[in-house]
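**Fold tokens**
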Amino acid sequence: MAKEKIKKQKIYHTPTKFEETANIDYSTYYMTKQEVILYTAIGCFVLFAIGYIFYRSIFVSLIFALLGVKYPEIKTKSIISDRQRKISNQFKDMLYAMQSAVSSGTSVENAVGMALEEMRKQYADPNTIIIKELELMVNRISVGTNIEEVFADFAARTHNEDVFTFSNIFEISKRTGGNIVEIMRETTTVISEKIETKGEIDTKLAGRKAEGKVMIAMPILLIFFMSKTTGEFMEPVFTTFTGRIAATVSLALIIVGALWMNKITDIEV
């Protein structure tokens, strides 16, 4: 009699939306394969074009293009930075909603649920970070999780200074039996003013960064248009040793200028 083979069935657990949110670390971002390919292609194309504009050599341009593989890493840092700004602004709106609810006599636990409803009205996208986080908070509170732990977990996963500040102050006030309404009001005011100040600085810096990008692009575009419109006038730049040295020095100065611009506009508040 043949032995029957018993196959073990693997049970796959599909995480709920609350579990997915709880596992997010906002200080990291992992690109999808499609995103990596897209941003690598963009980086390689731009660098290949710059190399060809300055050297008119496919070989040199390909060497430049190889550096494009670093662009996804640069873009990832930019995405994380933008996400942190969104968290700060959305957290400010959440604090205002909670402060209003607590001031009217609602408990902090119920104020979280009221803040969720307010954020749903304010943000149309249900995948907005603060909406997903408030949904998780409400779910955890409903199963008996301590409110201090809920805020502490949110702070730990966002790695956001403003959220950390609120979480620490709230935990201390609950532990010492302070006036929650007054503490919420003062904390909300201070944190909101700080976030608004950072927003104003970011807005002004955005204009300066845009101007800097234009200044960096102008020499490259100028060389491109001159090489296309002046015929043999620009030919020595691409065919002689002295011309290539001049092109290299010019490109090096542009790169130094770009790095310096990025340095002086990278302000942490």
